[in-house]
Write a structure and sequence with these properties.
The complex is a heterodimer. By secondary structure, chain A is an alpha/beta fold. In chain A, the strands form 5 sheets. Chain A has a 7-stranded mixed β-sheet with strand order 5-4-1-2-3-16-15, sandwiched between helices. Chain A has a 7-stranded mixed β-sheet with strand order 7-6-14-13-8-9-10, sandwiched between helices. Chain A has a 7-stranded mixed β-sheet with strand order 18-25-24-23-19-20-21, with helices on both faces. Residues 1-20, 374-388 and 758-768 of chain A have low confidence and may be disordered. By secondary structure, chain B is of the alpha+beta class. Chain B has helices spanning 17-21, 31-34, 36-42, 48-52, 56-69, 97-102, 105-116, 154-163, 178-182, 184-191, 200-214, 277-288, 293-302, 312-316, 340-345, 348-374, 390-403, 419-429, and strands spanning 75-80, 84-92, 119-120, 124-126, 132-137, 140-150, 172-176, 194-197, 222-226, 235-238, 247-252, 256-263, 266-273, 310-311, 330-332, 378-382, 409-413. In chain B, the strands form 3 sheets. In chain B, strands 1, 2, 3, 4, 5, 6, 7 and 8 form an 8-stranded mixed β-sheet that branches. A 7-stranded mixed β-sheet of chain B has the order 10-9-17-16-11-12-13, with helices on both faces. In chain B, 49% of the residues are buried. The chains are: A alpha/beta, B alpha+beta. The interface between A and B is large, with 65 and 65 residues.
Chain lengths: 768, 432
């Protein structure tokens, strides 16, 4: 019994405000190459979608041909900045009042218009059909609303890791994000428009409207307008946020004097909505009535959703549309960060079917997306500063298709991040401060990385503003981009750097470090060779750890490195904590390596220079010598001074030239280099390159090594794998060290054998 | 606790036998026997079912014991809800001369006051049309009266009880509903009355089963609407509720409780909703300025909800075939009221009607889902929201039938809101 038309939270279009001054190039971005337009026009908000290509600079490394005598310098490889074209999806949400202005702007900036049609959906699509056709010269092609909605929902659930959240009323953060189960189906979508539609989604193409209700957003608006004489939807929500429903509603305690114990109904439960207003001689405040109405409708929808979920045996229920905060009993109410965009995304996908966008992985671009706003405008003063109500979502098409690491013990419960900063206020405060403090240094480095470009300083300044604004937004709304984590802060910074064409600020430093470290490789290897087997095992581990001290990403170290470039490998070793380490399972590891060799080790590497060359490579060499195959996984794109796959290819070739063990490993295909699919200093094991996953499976990987603070502490510290794992890191941040109960340069050496294995062992011993 | 199952048997003379030997009317299904298994269940010496089929002498013996344990008059059952107080009163008509003599003046005056009036004070009303005559309860024959007054007038009621020295008659008054808890101390302090508090759902179910059992002739207690989807041929028909289980019992008072009843003693509260009769009246008062349920219903009967609600056809021009939604279905309750012009063009009657339709349909919807989840096909709607509210009943009948494609049957009971009070009275007579 419901219209699937969605209601927006914006104002109704009573006033056509044409005199808005947009910073349009910040909103309708990349219009020059835009194609495949789609539009979703709701009761009050319009959502525009288009596909575009973005040209941006990428740093490439190319090996010098060392066989010729023309080698210009002793440099290992050359760095070149090239233009690369990537695909990006743009979604813009604005009030219907701006539609004409926006269409004009798009018309003026649309250059390559091979596009002939615009896909349209939403209740308002027919109303604006002529206007769109006239303004844009595109044919409006209507798509079914519900189909678009479901397509959009599937898309965000698959591509945005923290898309869904539960509303936590009394928690420190309003929202608690859920990791999306790798298999998103089946689920129930409760779409709240002016009425409510309840849809069961079973697969990409199979869904069914199983029910609905006429009590929805339209009821809140219509009845609310009658009761409070308030015309606008937003104002009604505002009123409701200030009201007390208990003066209007009859509660269980109003009837019972307390709770209804035998049924477990608490006294505060609403027994009869508006039950107290059944009198002619009392006045009720607008706020209280609006609040009561909101409660009544939210609870009602929640209850119906719960009944439908139960009947169809579904545990995941997503609410979209009109924002409700009900807590319907046994079924968890899940909300979507991008619920407002679903229709537009779906309409776009319908129009782009020939490009088959679903075969790619997409990632939210934090630089270009405005994030989730609190529904309470009081919460974020930053929000008011924005002109009009323009929200954006940008998604980058990732070059690689991303999948789960097949070795995750339970993909559905895997959470990459160790600390959720949206829930941990002291940690949030520290890290936000930390990233803000580090901003000057990042800007300086960015400028320095492009000495030949005079406008670099200006761009770097823009980067600074953008990132600082993001940090400030996150201070007020930690949930704006899903769970706030050290990873998301790092990733946001990378996105912002890319945004302003600083693809790899550390390229030159990495190059220099790699050059220097390579010179010591043979020496390090030969000194290791002289040690006894047992001494060598320990020296190898210490080598990896000492190498990991070299890290420009960590504040404490970058200070030292910058002031004293001679800070050497040996000194790093001296800095290391003596055993027993903060986390120390070295003895178990040693015992294990005395046993049979592993079949194959997957090694997620960290920094370039000393770390990879003098720390990791000798360790890899030992593994190979033991007969263990090694898969080295490095970043696909640059992040800080992390070694990229491109760089690692060259480095490995050079090392192979000096070292027959590495050479043999490469020749015999026992040493494989793969890219992780990531461009982050952290690691999300649920979004890895499909090729990596394939290799891991083919090689029957039985050991996963994760190195570095970003990958093994900020993320994956608690990750449970189905095979043996080794997490190694040096804590180069005194605050974090403090928190973990250690001190600066404390060592984490965490060797784990999956519980299942132990269980099997003990099960064999204890008869049940 | 009186356990008539194992009372020693003596004093075999008694008028009580007569009605049993020669039932005077179909209405005198003796409640005490009907409820026997219930009391037996609590009694260690339970022999209920065998005794039922036993000889007359056993029955007589049992009736004698009934007399022994029978509480003194007056017999009241009370249900104090969020909005209304429901009171049932048994007026004995078989009073002997001896009894008449013994009867204290207070008792007499209460009996006269209640039975000779149809209205009490400004707001108390006796529903004369519901009165059950020649009813045999616990061996006594008389009339059962159904009285109601607003909960906010409870103080006046208590004052009256005080004035009439009600407390001198007997010490406990069986009461259910939330008010039994909320006002317990008021009863004590204002009228010197001790309440025996009872669970409202227990009482409700007991009352429903009892009233249905005693109403086997005359106007049927239980009825349904034939052809609910054709307004012109929609007729009220009696429904024999002989084998009622399983049953979904929907009690629509200020709020709504939905119970799944599997047997007399086996039921659960499935869910409830706060959108009930109180919501209808509350919203109507705010929207139209009316002040009573009757007034609100009267307005609703003259209004047109389609001016207020947005229908499927208002959005799609007709049926929304893809999802099997007919054009006349409401897409958004009060949806038209989003527009200023339409807000200005609707009447109070339209608003009252839309409120009624919204609340009723929502109850129908939730009920239907519960029926599906519990796998129950028979739904009995009770509660005072349905009093003189044929509009809602027909709507519920229609909604049940239409959306379940004829699978679900909506049933109604004549004594709509009084079952809790009846259950409380039964508890007085036959403590479970």
């Amino acid at each position: 019994m419901a219209e699937c038309g969605r209601l927006g939270r914006g104002t109704s279009s009573h006033t056509m405000d044409k005199s808005i001054t947009l910073p349009p190039d910040e909103i309708f971005r990349n219009l020059e190459n835009a194609k495949r337009f789609a539009i979703d026009i709701g009761g009050s908000l319009t959502k525009l979608a288009y596909y575009s290509t973005v040209q941006h600079k990428v740093a490439k490394v190319r090996s010098f041909d060392h066989s010729t005598k023309e080698a210009p310098s002793d440099k290992l490889y050359e760095i070149s900045v090239q233009e690369e074209v990537t695909a990006r999806l743009h979604f813009i949400k604005f009030e219907n009042a701006y539609i004409e202005t926006c269409l004009d702007f798009i018309k003026d900036h649309l250059v390559n218009t091979e596009t002939k049609v615009i896909k349209a959906t939403g209740g308002g699509a027919h109303k604006f059909k002529e206007l769109i056709e006239k303004k844009l010269g595109l044919k409006v092609d209507k798509e079914d609303e519900m189909t678009c909605l479901i397509k959009g929902c599937n898309f965000v659930l698959k591509n945005i890791p923290h898309e869904a959240f539960v509303y936590a009323k009394h928690a420190d953060s309003e929202f608690r994000f859920q990791t999306t189960h790798p298999d998103i189906f089946p689920y129930l979508l409760v779409n709240i428009g002016s009425g409510v539609s309840i849809v069961k989604v079973e697969s990409e193409d199979k869904f069914e409207r199983i029910g609905g209700s006429s009590i929805g957003g339209g009821t809140f608006w219509g009845l609310g307008a009658l009761l409070t004489k308030t015309k606008r939807f937003d104002e009604l929500l505002q009123l409701a946020s200030k009201g007390q429903h208990t003066s209007v509603d009859m509660l269980v305690k109003d009837i019972y004097g307390g709770s209804y114990g035998s049924l477990g109904l608490t006294g505060d439960l609403i027994a009869s909505s508006f039950g107290k207003s059944a009198t002619a001689d009392k006045e009720f405040s607008k706020e209280d009535m609006a609040k009561s109405l909101l409660h009544m409708i939210s609870n009602d929808i929640g209850q119906l959703a719960c009944l439908y979920a139960k009947l169809h045996n579904l545990s995941r229920v997503y609410f979209g549309g009109f924002f409700i905060r009900g807590h319907p009993g046994e079924v968890q109410a899940l909300f979507l960060r991008h619920e407002g965009y679903l229709g537009a995304i779906g309409a776009f996908l319908k129009g782009a079917e020939e490009d088959n966008p679903n075969q790619y992985s997409w990632g939210e671009n934090y630089a270009g997306s405005s994030g989730l706003m609190s529904i309470s405008p009081d919460m974020n003063p930053m929000q008011r500063a924005r002109s009009g109500t323009f929200d954006m979502l940008e998604m980058d098409r990732l070059e690689r298709q991303l999948v789960n690491l097949p070795l995750l013990q339970d993909p559905s419960s895997y959470i990459p991040d160790s600390v959720d900063l949206s829930e941990d206020a002291p940690a949030r405060e520290y890290w936000l401060y930390c990233f803000e403090e580090a901003l000057d240094g990042v800007v300086k480095r960015a400028v320095a990385s492009q000495p030949d470009m005079p406008e670099a300083a200006e761009r770097a300044e823009k980067f600074r503003q953008k990132y600082r604004h993001k940090l400030q937004t996150l201070r007020y709304q930690p949930f704006a981009y899903g769970s706030l984590t050290v990873r998301s802060l790092l990733d946001t910074r990378e996105h912002c750097l890319n945004e302003f064409n600083f693809p790899d600020p550390y390229s030159k430093i990495k190059q220099m470090e790699n050059d220097i470290a390579l010179k010591y490789y043979e020496k390090v290897v030969s000194s290791l060779e002289q040690l006894s087997w047992e001494e060598r095992q320990f020296a190898l581990v210490r080598g990896v750890l000492a190498g990991n001290v070299f890290d420009w990403g960590a504040k404490a170290v970058s200070d030292v490195l910058e002031s004293d470039p001679e800070f050497g490998f040996e000194e790093a070793k001296r800095q290391l904590e003596e055993r027993p380490w903060l986390v120390d399972s070295y003895d178990q590891w040693l015992k294990r390596v005395k046993g049979p060799p592993h079949k194959c080790a997957l090694f997620f590497v960290d920094n370039s220079g000393v770390d990879i060359i003098l720390g990791v490579m000798p360790f890899v060499r030992e593994l190979l010598s033991r007969g263990t195959e090694v898969v080295l996984a490095s970043n696909s794109g640059p992040a800080l001074n992390d070694v990229t796959n491109g760089e690692l290819q060259i480095l490995t070739e050079r090392i192979a030239a000096m070292d027959p063990v590495i050479q043999a490993g490469l020749n015999e295909d026992r040493l494989t280099l793969v890219q992780s699919g990531s461009s982050s200093p952290c690691l999300d094991l649920s979004r890895l390159d499909k090729v990596l996953a394939m290799v891991v499976r083919e090689r029957q990987t039985d050991l996963v090594i994760i190195e570095g603070m970003g990958r093994a502490i900020h993320t994956n510290y608690y990750a449970m794998l189905s095979c043996e794992s080794l997490k190694m890191a040096v804590i180069k941040n005194s605050w974090l060290a403090d928190r973990l109960g250690g001190k600066l340069f404390s060592v984490v050496f965490k060797y784990e054998v999956p519980a299942e294995k132990n269980m099997c062992d003990s099960a064999a011993l204890t008869p049940l | 606790m009186a356990l008539n199952g194992h009372q020693p048997d003596h004093d075999i003379n008694g008028e009580d036998e007569t009605p049993m030997k020669q039932p005077r009317s179909n209405k005198e299904m003796p409640g005490c026997l009907r409820n026997e298994p219930d009391s037996e269940a609590a009694a260690p010496a339970g022999r209920a079912s065998s005794e039922r089929h036993n000889s007359n002498s056993t029955t007589r013996r049992r009736l004698d014991s009934v007399k022994k344990t029978r509480p003194p008059f007056p017999w009241f059952g009370m249900d104090i809800g969020g909005t209304l107080v429901k009171l049932v009163y048994f007026e004995p008509k078989d009073i002997t001369a001896e009894e008449e003599q013994e009867e204290v003046e207070n008792l007499k005056s209460i009996r006269r006051y209640l039975t000779s009036n149809v209205a009490y004070g400004k707001t108390g009303i006796r529903d004369v049309h519901l009165e059950l005559q020649d009813l045999t309860l616990c061996g006594r024959t008389g009339n059962l009266h159904f009285i109601r007054f607003p909960t906010h007038d409870l103080p006046a009621f208590l004052q009256m009880g005080r004035n009439k020295h009600f407390s001198s008659l007997h010490t406990t008054l069986c009461a259910t509903g939330g008010g039994a808890y909320k006002f317990e101390s008021d009863f004590r302090t204002m009228a010197d009355l001790q309440l025996h508090k009872l669970d409202e759902l227990d009482c409700l179910i007991r009352g429903v089963l009892y009233i249905d059992s005693v109403m086997s002739s005359g106007p049927s207690e239980c009825y349904y609407f034939e052809n609910p989807t054709e307004p012109d041929h929609c007729i009220q028909r009696p429904y024999p509720l002989e084998n009622p289980y399983p049953l979904l019992l929907v009690n629509i008072g200020s709020g709504v409780s939905i119970l799944a009843v599997y047997s007399k003693n086996n039921y659960k509260r499935v869910t409830g909703t706060s959108l009930g009769g109180g919501t209808f009246l509350g919203l109507c008062c705010l929207l139209t300025g009316c002040s009573s349920f009757e007034e609100a219903l009267e307005m609703a009967s003259q209004g047109e909800s389609t001016r207020v609600d947005k229908l499927v056809r208002d959005i799609y021009g007709g049926d929304y075939e893809r999802f099997g939604l007919p054009g006349w279905a409401v897409a958004s309750s009060f949806g038209n009221m989003m527009s200023k012009e339409k807000r200005e063009s609707v009447s109070k009657e339209d608003l009252a009607r839309a409120t009624l339709v919204t609340i009723t349909n929502n109850i129908g919807s939730i009920t239907r889902m519960c029926a599906l989840n519990e796998n129950i096909e028979r739904v009995v709607f009770v509660g005072n929201f349905l009093r003189v509210n044929t509009l809602s009943m027909k709507l519920l009948a229609y909604a049940m039938d239409y959306w379940s494609k004829g699978q679900l049957k909506a049933l109604f009971l004549r004594h709509e809101g009084y079952f809790g009070a009846v259950g409380a009275l039964l508890e007085l007579l036959h403590p479970s």
